[in-house]
Amino acid sequence: TLVGILNLLSKYSPEELEKIFLRKDRADGTPFPITFGDWVKFGEFITGISGGCIDKNGILEMEEGIFRKRLFVPEIAYNRITYFKGRMCASPGGGCTVKEWSANGDGSYTITPDLTDADGLSQFVDDILTTYFVTKNAEGKLQGFEEMKFRVTSAD
Protein backbone atom coordinates (compact mmCIF):
# COMPACT_ATOMS: atom_id res chain seq x y z
CA THR A 1 0.00 0.00 0.00
CA LEU A 2 0.99 3.63 -0.38
CA VAL A 3 1.14 4.11 3.40
CA GLY A 4 3.49 1.14 3.73
CA ILE A 5 5.78 2.47 1.00
CA LEU A 6 5.87 5.94 2.58
CA ASN A 7 6.59 4.34 5.97
CA LEU A 8 9.52 2.42 4.50
CA LEU A 9 10.93 5.46 2.68
CA SER A 10 10.71 7.64 5.80
CA LYS A 11 13.46 5.53 7.37
CA TYR A 12 16.02 6.90 4.88
CA SER A 13 17.52 10.34 4.52
CA PRO A 14 17.29 12.07 1.10
CA GLU A 15 21.03 11.45 0.61
CA GLU A 16 20.59 7.71 1.26
CA LEU A 17 17.63 7.56 -1.13
CA GLU A 18 19.75 9.16 -3.88
CA LYS A 19 22.20 6.24 -3.52
CA ILE A 20 19.38 3.70 -3.94
CA PHE A 21 17.07 5.14 -6.63
CA LEU A 22 17.81 6.43 -10.12
CA ARG A 23 16.64 9.96 -10.83
CA LYS A 24 14.27 10.71 -13.71
CA ASP A 25 14.48 14.50 -13.44
CA ARG A 26 18.23 14.82 -14.13
CA ALA A 27 21.20 12.80 -15.41
CA ASP A 28 21.94 9.78 -13.24
CA GLY A 29 23.53 6.37 -13.63
CA THR A 30 24.41 3.07 -12.02
CA PRO A 31 27.40 0.74 -12.34
CA PHE A 32 24.98 -2.22 -12.23
CA PRO A 33 23.15 -3.83 -15.17
CA ILE A 34 19.58 -2.63 -15.69
CA THR A 35 16.83 -4.94 -16.93
CA PHE A 36 13.88 -3.41 -18.73
CA GLY A 37 10.50 -4.94 -19.59
CA ASP A 38 9.57 -6.12 -23.07
CA TRP A 39 11.14 -3.14 -24.87
CA VAL A 40 12.99 0.14 -24.55
CA LYS A 41 11.86 3.15 -26.55
CA PHE A 42 13.75 6.28 -27.52
CA GLY A 43 11.93 9.51 -28.30
CA GLU A 44 8.41 9.33 -29.65
CA PHE A 45 8.60 5.86 -31.19
CA ILE A 46 6.31 5.19 -34.14
CA THR A 47 7.44 2.19 -36.16
CA GLY A 48 8.86 3.20 -39.54
CA ILE A 49 8.42 6.90 -38.76
CA SER A 50 10.10 8.32 -35.64
CA GLY A 51 12.03 7.50 -32.49
CA GLY A 52 13.59 4.13 -31.89
CA CYS A 53 13.19 0.94 -29.88
CA ILE A 54 14.85 -2.33 -28.93
CA ASP A 55 12.40 -5.16 -28.26
CA LYS A 56 12.76 -8.11 -25.86
CA ASN A 57 14.31 -10.21 -28.67
CA GLY A 58 17.02 -7.63 -29.38
CA ILE A 59 15.41 -6.38 -32.59
CA LEU A 60 16.42 -2.77 -33.10
CA GLU A 61 14.57 -0.10 -35.08
CA MET A 62 16.13 3.35 -35.34
CA GLU A 63 16.83 6.06 -37.88
CA GLU A 64 20.59 5.47 -38.13
CA GLY A 65 23.60 4.00 -36.36
CA ILE A 66 27.23 4.99 -36.13
CA PHE A 67 29.85 2.36 -35.36
CA ARG A 68 33.26 3.92 -34.74
CA LYS A 69 35.30 0.76 -35.18
CA ARG A 70 33.56 -2.16 -36.93
CA LEU A 71 30.37 -4.16 -37.26
CA PHE A 72 30.30 -7.96 -37.53
CA VAL A 73 27.22 -9.46 -39.21
CA PRO A 74 26.70 -12.37 -41.60
CA GLU A 75 24.46 -10.33 -43.92
CA ILE A 76 23.41 -6.73 -44.46
CA ALA A 77 20.44 -6.03 -46.75
CA TYR A 78 19.96 -2.42 -47.87
CA ASN A 79 17.07 -1.49 -50.13
CA ARG A 80 16.93 -5.13 -51.24
CA ILE A 81 20.55 -5.12 -52.39
CA THR A 82 22.69 -7.48 -50.35
CA TYR A 83 26.34 -6.85 -49.49
CA PHE A 84 28.78 -9.58 -48.42
CA LYS A 85 32.54 -9.60 -47.82
CA GLY A 86 32.95 -6.08 -49.19
CA ARG A 87 31.35 -6.97 -52.54
CA MET A 88 28.00 -5.81 -53.79
CA CYS A 89 25.61 -8.44 -55.10
CA ALA A 90 22.73 -6.68 -56.84
CA SER A 91 19.63 -8.72 -57.54
CA PRO A 92 16.30 -7.39 -58.80
CA GLY A 93 14.54 -9.71 -56.36
CA GLY A 94 16.82 -8.81 -53.48
CA GLY A 95 18.64 -12.13 -53.56
CA CYS A 96 17.47 -14.96 -51.39
CA THR A 97 18.47 -16.85 -48.30
CA VAL A 98 18.66 -20.65 -48.49
CA LYS A 99 16.06 -22.29 -46.26
CA GLU A 100 17.27 -25.83 -46.95
CA TRP A 101 19.21 -27.83 -49.52
CA SER A 102 19.62 -31.46 -50.48
CA ALA A 103 21.98 -33.42 -52.72
CA ASN A 104 20.30 -35.01 -55.75
CA GLY A 105 22.92 -37.78 -56.01
CA ASP A 106 24.12 -36.70 -59.46
CA GLY A 107 26.34 -33.81 -58.39
CA SER A 108 23.47 -31.33 -58.44
CA TYR A 109 21.59 -29.89 -55.48
CA THR A 110 18.04 -28.77 -54.83
CA ILE A 111 17.90 -25.47 -52.97
CA THR A 112 14.74 -24.17 -51.30
CA PRO A 113 14.88 -20.40 -50.84
CA ASP A 114 13.57 -18.78 -47.66
CA LEU A 115 11.18 -16.23 -49.12
CA THR A 116 8.82 -13.93 -47.25
CA ASP A 117 5.27 -13.24 -48.42
CA ALA A 118 6.55 -10.04 -50.06
CA ASP A 119 9.34 -11.80 -51.98
CA GLY A 120 8.98 -13.39 -55.37
CA LEU A 121 11.48 -15.84 -56.83
CA SER A 122 13.68 -13.70 -59.08
CA GLN A 123 16.08 -16.42 -60.25
CA PHE A 124 15.53 -18.05 -63.63
CA VAL A 125 16.89 -21.07 -65.52
CA ASP A 126 20.49 -20.53 -66.70
CA ASP A 127 21.10 -17.62 -64.31
CA ILE A 128 24.64 -17.71 -62.94
CA LEU A 129 24.49 -16.84 -59.25
CA THR A 130 27.11 -16.06 -56.65
CA THR A 131 26.35 -16.94 -53.07
CA TYR A 132 28.15 -16.39 -49.81
CA PHE A 133 27.60 -18.65 -46.86
CA VAL A 134 28.69 -18.93 -43.26
CA THR A 135 31.08 -21.71 -42.31
CA LYS A 136 31.33 -23.11 -38.81
CA ASN A 137 34.08 -25.02 -37.04
CA ALA A 138 33.70 -28.45 -35.39
CA GLU A 139 32.27 -26.78 -32.27
CA GLY A 140 29.59 -25.02 -34.33
CA LYS A 141 31.10 -21.55 -33.88
CA LEU A 142 31.36 -19.01 -36.70
CA GLN A 143 34.55 -19.64 -38.67
CA GLY A 144 34.09 -17.36 -41.66
CA PHE A 145 32.39 -16.93 -45.01
CA GLU A 146 32.79 -18.82 -48.29
CA GLU A 147 31.84 -17.97 -51.87
CA MET A 148 30.20 -20.28 -54.39
CA LYS A 149 29.02 -19.75 -57.99
CA PHE A 150 26.33 -21.91 -59.55
CA ARG A 151 23.94 -22.12 -62.51
CA VAL A 152 20.19 -22.44 -62.03
CA THR A 153 18.92 -25.53 -63.90
CA SER A 154 15.26 -25.25 -62.88
CA ALA A 155 13.14 -22.80 -60.91
CA ASP A 156 9.53 -22.96 -59.79
From TrEMBL:
<protein>
    <submittedName>
        <fullName>Uncharacterized protein</fullName>
    </submittedName>
</protein>
